[in-house]
């Protein structure tokens, strides 16, 4: 004889609630590795309960509830594998730019820190010329003292393909380090952003004081807009990680770091191909006088505009277009 329905529900309800809770954690990206086995066990028990309900309680609310619960669990556990290239295409078409737009506050804060560093470095050198001895590398100061750009000899040392490869590798390293220093509570990322800004500002001010600002702008015009934008985006990713460590909200600190870290990693991975592209520009176009300054500046402005147009427009949802709040994906 079947157990009365209220008694059966009271007996099994704890497992069903636990399964629902684990499915919710899986959807939010906070499910721990050790909970996967529990999820599988509870799903199998719920499937047995569904078979029991089909036999003894068919057509009841409990039968319908279990049918829906088991369907959700099956869809979550046995997701079909995503094809690699469609997944990559979807990432760059939608996920990467959408993540940047969601996290624009952190990217904006990164940009402010970087610009403050530039202003600080420039003001120090312009106010006190001896400040260049502290803020500008000695090799750069040596070239400037001779009235020469330190970038003039790049192509004489190595061919453009080697230069482009080395630059891309260096830029990727800087991007990853800027992001990873978010694990210091964001302090390392903050320091790196301000420090890089100070160096750029100090070198620019030194070149301006010595009448060589045009040569500096000639070198950075083609690659600078995209390269510096990527540094700022990596800084935003690092600040996201730091914020998760300092203020995890209602989640345990480890889970908050995992959730926010996944979003931050999307920003860093999304920048990788653009770093490779801009490394080619910096290796082939930026150094030397093969290309006139106006062409370098035009190329830099076009690449920068296309890069930000892509980030701000690609994969926009209807909610974003109308300004309505949209759920963030994890």
TrEMBL record:
The chain crosses the membrane at residues 106-127, 172-193, 267-285, 291-312. InterPro entries: SpoIIM-like. The keyword Cell membrane does not apply. Pfam families: SpoIIM (PF01944). Keywords: Membrane, Transmembrane, Transmembrane helix. It comes from the Bacteria. This is Stage II sporulation protein M.
